[in-house]
Design goal:
The structure is a homodimer. The first copy, chain A, is an alpha/beta fold. Chain A has two domains: 5-60, Spermidine Synthase, Chain: A, domain 2 (Roll), CATH 2.30.140.10; 64-286, Rossmann fold (3-Layer(aba) Sandwich). Chain A is built from ten helices and 14 strands.
């Protein structure tokens, strides 16, 4: 069952053979297939304006902060400088709009592979695109992030790399390859910090067994963060944060003062972040062979 | 769309008009309508054995600990004695099986309204029923919890009351009525603790505005706990814990020693509990008018 429509109104977000989400489209705004993926944007009565990429739920206006805020504000609490920040993917401009709330970010580059994602998001999620593209610190590169981090001009450059891709267990597998992590590391300053979308910890948990060994070959300090993300299948989702310096990756760096300094943060408190870093026994046991 | 089957194999868990979960039934084990509700139990290939009550996802073998463990172990950390514990609902025996892991629980009563739930769960979730009914400290009452807490013999009796019902925003509205909370309070010792399933904080958040004022009239100390529960719609779910003594309701009572003393707890750490007690700004603001 693949983004099937039933009587023309229901769109499925298939996760696996026996479980998934469904959404009833009020109005389909975009339904195109690009060189990279299928893009579907719809309005719904209760779940916001949603973008699906390759039939997977990607983002919605009513839940964006649950995903974008941790992706932006947790790594930026853990860097020593904010001179150069890189987003790989992120074509909806959502993470970018949150990164740019940090007044001390000097330069933000967003490297998105699919120009058509950028174009439709400018039109249908204008708030995020406007905040990013209206900011002189922001620049957009249309290209493959895997190639971008290899460029000689990008060596030892970034303070933080934020990998905001489609699901790494489906369409974005190249972004959990060991060779990619080697290149990401080379593109970062020695005290740089990486954050990336992971998977859920119930249905897709096998992803972690593939992702963690590849990360740990290049980043000795890595932590799954079990951040619940509404509408992502099961909601019991995870991100991963990694770096080469132990002192950087510390949940205590997300203080109340830090959160307040960003302004209007909706989904994060210091104690929540400490909780996300604390792995429940079932998950600790599950990944024990690869950490 | 109400528990519709598409080509005979897909069963929906409808949440609201534009969003919900779907599950593909491998084998339907129970499909009956009782005096109280429709009961559907199915096996799935990846999401475990699932029970739906009135077409709402109720419990699955692969996620039960995410819900049952907090419902059992958080209130039992906050009581001063464990002489008499009451479960209202809980007919799958799941919460009961976790409560009885506490060796210092003296008596556990489970008051379930629907005897047919109990019967099918004995058969199809035999592990939970076996642990409960094989324990001499356990007793089952078939009856309405709303009436049970009014009984003269149950005044000032319970150290903890655990309300494990179907969704209070649909079929179990009577369990968030002010009069019910008055009776629950009267059935509890002065230092007793109540825990109850709430709602999610995105799609069903209006439930909180109805529930909290009714609780606070009788329990001056109440805290939503934002516990992510896989498969419950959006996953960004919440429980509520309440009591009459401020000192009781303290996340710091869930220590590592406490968790270890229970044995084989899968989904809880002390830092996770502190995180669940810490309300994110969006939710704090949402309920600010009623707290």
């Amino acid at each position: 069952m693949n983004a099937e429509k039933i009587d023309g109104t229901y769109i499925f977000d298939e996760s696996l053979s026996s479980y998934g989400n469904f959404f009833k489209a009020g109005k389909i705004l975009v339904d195109i297939t690009t060189a990279y993926q299928k893009i579907l944007i719809m309005d719904t009565s209760d779940a916001g304006r949603i973008m699906f990429l390759d039939n997977d739920f990607n983002v919605s206006t009513i839940m964006e902060s649950f995903y974008h805020e941790p992706m932006a504000h947790i790594p930026l609490a853990m860097v020593n400088q904010k001179e150069n920040i890189l987003i790989i993917g992120g074509g909806d401009f959502g993470v970018a709009s949150h990164v740019l709330k940090h007044k001390d970010v000097r330069h933000l580059v967003m490297c998105e592979i699919d120009e058509q994602v950028v174009q439709v998001c400018r039109r249908y999620f204008p708030d995020w695109a406007g905040k990013a593209e209206g900011d002189p610190r922001f620049s957009l590169v249309i290209g493959d992030g895997i190639e971008f981090v290899k460029k000689p001009g990008n060596k030892a450059k970034f303070d933080a790399v934020i990998i905001d891709s489609t699901d790494p267990f489906s369409s974005a597998r190249g972004l959990i390859a060991e060779s990619f992590y080697a290149d990401v590391k080379a593109s970062m300053k020695p005290d740089g910090v990486l954050i990336q979308i992971g998977a859920d910890t119930v249905i897709y948990k096998k992803l972690w067994l593939e992702m963690i060994p590849n990360i740990r070959k290049h980043f000795p300090f890595f932590y799954p963060l079990l951040v619940p993300i509404p509408f992502y299948v099961t909601g019991a989702w995870g991100l991963v944060i990694a770096g080469s310096e132990e002192s950087s990756i510390d949940p205590a760096r997300v203080t109340g003062e830090y959160i307040n300094s960003i302004g209007n943060v909706k989904t994060i408190t210091p104690d929540m972040v400490k909780g996300w870093f604390s792995l429940p026994p079932y998950f600790k046991e599950y990944i024990s062979g690869v950490v």
